[in-house]
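Homework-ish question, so no full write-ups if that breaks the rules, but can someone show me the predicted structure for this set?
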Amino acid sequence: MIQALPRETVFEAQERARRATRFLFALVLFTYTAIFNAAAFACIWLYRYFNATRGLQLQYDIHTDPLLTAQEILVITMVSTSVAIILGWLHFITARNQPLDRLIKLLGAKEADPSDSYHARFINTVQEAEAATGIKPIRAVIIPDMGLNAFSLENGKSERVIGITEGLLGRLDRSELTAVISHEAAHLANKDSELTTTLYSLTSIFAKLSRVFGNFRYLGRTRFRSSGRGGGGGLALILLIQLVLWALSTLGCAITKILYLAISRNREYLADAHAAEMCKDPLSLAEALNKIAASSRGSFPTADGLATVFIINPKPSLLDELEGAWANMFSTHPPVQNRMKKLVDWAKANLDVLKKKAPEQAEPSFLYKDEQGWQGPASPKQMMTEGVLAPQTWVAPLGTGEIGHAADYAELVTLLNNSQGETGQSEKTIQDKCPRCKVTGLAETEYEGNPVLHCRFCKGYLLKEGALERMMARHEKEFPEDEILKAKDIWLAAHHKKLKESCPWPHIKCSLCGDEMMKSFHTLHTRVVIDRCLKCGAIWCDAGELEMIQMIVERQNLFFAPKRV
Amino acid sequence: MENYIWIGIGVIALGLIAYFISMYNTLVKYRVETDNAWSQIDVQLKRRTDLIPNLVETVKGVMKFETNTLTQVMEARGRALGATSQRDRLKAEGEISGLLGRLLAVWENYPDLKSNRNALELQEELTTTENRISYTRGHYNDVVANLNTMIVQFPTNLVANTFRITKREFFETPETEKAPVKVSL
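A: Not a homework solution, just the prediction itself:
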């Protein structure tokens, strides 16, 4: 009798994950068909019952006995199972053959630029993954987001893509990058996209049915007849059937969702193990996970169900930090600590190796709550620069389960106190002085997914080359109508002014390269005066100019050129 | 009644034939994959051969102590390109790997190379080419393992024997590459 090794090997881990997936997937299929069958039986039984008890007159000659014969049971089962399979298949096919470009654009990803050395390294690593797995071709895209994350996608037409954020690309060294890419390539090799698309479409079938059957609003409009044949009884029957169908579809949705999450977690473990086998370097993968877990994982428009394609869930939630069966059941990814522990075990090391080389943030990380919900994790300095830190902001230190006000935590209090005194000199910011007001430094912040330099005092923006064009294509910011009307007035008035009159500000020096910046119109259409650096392409927008350009470009139909009188 | 038996036998026979056909198809697919994987190794080796002259030109002026290694690399490359037999070719490629490994190992001794943009790009290209060569070899071995397993397992071995589909050899590292890289500091 061969005893299992005390430590699970990489190969055993993969086998176990595959077996678990098969079991769970069988459960999903069983639940799916069982719910459809149950729905069919319930409807028919209710129908028969109503016939038997209320004596509704009908055209067909059927039994009034509510019980069904064996033959009928068989027929009903086969019909409802076929309906379930056909419905699932159609839904799956439509979801599966979506062109990848839409999803890639949704995430804001662009093709990697070979002239950039980091991008070139990324492209090379993806091609190494192609060589190792034999899967060709794999597109390499970059998400220009400062958060740390990576993803991989495949659709039914065998289009594959691996993407990474700018933030992560800048933080990893070559062996860690190889490890992360091999994790994503492992997902592609194991056809995880296909699996999750299948499961997700099953879940969404139930969700859609549940929404359809949950529409009880017509009840308010129908008038109930007090008695009588056909009228009241018929309505009660329809109501009851709808109730049963709604209950069943909601139940189906819940069960399928929980199983889908369980399968998703299994596949993450599988991908980790496969990646360790491919790159022979589990320690690097563990270090990469360590870096990602302690930082912001990027702000993406996460359509529901898109979170699974990433290496760590981009939506931060306290559930991900806590471990324990309850939290585990509702998360798409396994707890990071568990994943790191397994990888470190395979490397025959222990977690202390990682903690020592933890990211430069020896400072604690916090999750913080703003209007959109929980964000982060971020270090106190990052929270300060982004302007989200106030004494009454709700924060949660990473790794613990507690939540409190920012004023309760010593590190944050010192930062807050420092910032009250001087205007913006609280911490070292990226550039020394704002080129316009020279009062405070420029802080690195994000505008529509772009890293920009922002002056907190005069509200100006310094954009690097190419950033303005990228922003024009993004419509994240919504402008209220009255602001747009004001913008229109300003724009109309600007049409008759020359350059010198439009902008009385003096010339400024570019913070990035020191060259003097030139004032010019953004375009002859928008007539917004911005400062351009001719040497490095950087653009300086004073307060309101960037928003003005965006409004004009986005609402083209409002901003027609006035007729020359 | 008899008809049903004949129909049943016919269906089973058809099923068996379809099963054997699918086994044959899988075997042939694996064989083609093996050939493909082998040629992928060649693609990466050729990529390295093309990079070497560029590398030697770029670092010749800076790496004063490695002129010997650089000359040997060019010679080995010439031998690899002109090799007639598979064994000679593998031997030459193995020598190139060893020499390039030595070069990359002493790259750090020349701080001038760090500021040279061409040299940095070349270092990246060489690193990735070496990685790709090892990954394609590993992938070739994986595919050969799949093929050999199928050939030996029952019932596919019946089909394999009938159609003379034979096992392939794994890629063995040539002896010259197995020796540790000698770096003189």
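Now go work out the reasoning yourself. Hint: The radius of gyration of chain B is 25 Å.
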